Description:
Shape: globular
Mean pLDDT: 94
CATH superfamily of the largest domain: Pseudouridine synthase I, catalytic domain, C-terminal subdomain
Number of strands: 10
CATH architecture of the largest domain: 2-Layer Sandwich
Amino acid sequence: MRYFIYISYFGTAYSGWQIQKNAITVQQVVEAALSKLLSTPVSVSGSSRTDKEVHAAQQVAHFNLIAPIDPAYLIYKVNRILPSDISITAMRPVVDGAHARFDACYRRYAYTIVTQKDPFYRDRAIWLRRIPPLALLNQIADLFAVQADFEFFSKITDSTKRFICNIEEAFWMQIDQKIVFQIKADRFLRGMVRTIVGTILKTATGKMDVTALEQLIKHKPAVRPMLTLVPPHGLTLVEVGYPETLFIKENES
């Protein structure tokens, strides 16, 4: 049977989600814990390739088992093996062929900024002493709520061939002393959210013209512009959504 597992992790100690040579990653640690518990090699495939130091409130991955298992039992047992900064929060059986990455309808990320120094957020947010008015930030964020080619808002990689993303929501909100940017889209490119946040802040502080930004989003220029990439530790993968038709109900399993 195939299962989706929902994973929460604090990314500070890891070189991102995806397995890499000579680096400790979340995927590697989760696979090792499941393999030890089940006494058989287990491979998991995640929904999103979060970068080094990026966190996840809800990462989703799929893996296969020969026989059904009690999800509550597995969750409890594997969480006893996993380190304190990684947790399995849920597990659901899915139809054959369901894919955590390719079947995702949307992903939601949040980027957090604190406006006063807070030691409890030192690895979860960036600290900016001054931040532009929320209304101005949202006015600029509205420009990104489109379907467009976001190649210039991503890291250059040889593996990426398609750059069209459909951004459904992009907005800022204030929660106490925190300013949080939330963005929801069908897919994201590497470094895309961090570049969008940096570009919004750059534009809101007058270092980039709003009209120039609008043209950059709508009409990709011939020359790649220099855009700002904010630090990774303020970024969190918040949610990954799927069609309910992928999930097997208890009386069907």
